[in-house]
Design goal:
Layout (H helix, E strand, L loop, with lengths): L4 H9 L11 E3 L2 H10 L2 E6 L9 E5 L4 E5 L2 E5 L4 H8 L6 E5 L5 E2 L2 E10 L6 E9 L14 E3 L1 H8 L4 H25 L4 E8 L5 E7 L14 H13 L2
Length: 242
């Protein structure tokens, strides 16, 4: 069962505790894209159905015109050609969302986000794994299948917050609370037992929900030197029967 991104976004938007963590997202019509480009310096245009970072288009405002990227392809165009460039990367008969771009924090000069792997082997949601995903060089997505690699979230947050352990602990708790709430929210309408929640931290320290994936990949956790999380994930999969 694949749940569309917009359906999950609207379900999360209905929860007051999640609303401040959701970047502005709409169906990607031409008029909506142009309106959002006037307000935001970058946008992400994503297929409603899809995973692994495939098919995501980034539009970034330049001093004159825009840069439009999808995978390793890149076009620099003027304002009158930006929609044409976007459509050249879109797959026909696919619906797309447009999402406000975020100014994300970096780890050693590279963007990262946070993958939280949640499972419900019995009656209660639990966090089986959490890791930072570091983007590959020159990539704007962090997905494992796009060259992203895992790093200990503890190590990344300590670097980000200058070894302030109290602040790191506070962020760990916020990440846990948001992720559990996302899982419970999506589970209300959908019979799922696993969920991958992708979070990011912006330059102001705000936590954002990037996506909730009902078919999360677990290979990222095999890259961690400590194999406790991947063992927990695989154990729970056997309990769930998947």
């Amino acid at each position: 069962m694949t749940i569309g991104k917009m359906k999950k976004y609207r379900e999360m938007l209905s929860i007051p505790g999640l609303r401040p963590h959701l970047p502005e997202t709409h169906w990607a019509t031409n008029s909506r894209i142009l309106r959002m480009l006037k307000v935001h310096s970058s946008l992400f245009i994503k297929p409603n159905h899809g995973s692994g970072g495939s098919g995501i288009i980034r539009v970034r405002r330049l001093r004159r015109g825009y840069e439009v990227r999808c995978g390793s392809s890149r076009k620099v165009v003027g304002p009158s050609s930006v929609l044409r460039a976007i459509h050249s990367f879109r797959k026909p008969k696919h619906r797309y969302l447009v999402q406000k771009g975020l100014r994300l924090e970096k780890y050693h000069g590279t963007i990262f986000d946070i993958r939280v792997y949640l499972q419900k082997p019995k009656q209660t949601w639990m966090i089986a794994g959490v890791a930072a995903r570091i983007a590959a060089p020159h990539k704007f997505v962090t997905n494992y299948h796009k060259g992203g690699h895992a790093e200990s979230l503890q190590r990344v947050l300590l670097s980000l917050f200058q070894n302030n352990q109290a602040k790191v602990d506070a962020y760990h708790q916020k990440i846990k609370n948001i992720s559990i709430t996302v899982a419970r929210t999506v589970n209300r309408s959908h019979p799922i037992h696993e969920l991958g929640v992708d979070l990011a931290i912006d330059k102001n320290g705000r936590i954002w929900i990037i996506e909730a994936n009902s078919h999360p990949g677990h290979m990222l956790f095999t890259q961690l030197s400590d194999h406790t999380m991947i063992r927990t994930i695989m154990h729970n999969k056997r309990l769930i029967g998947i």
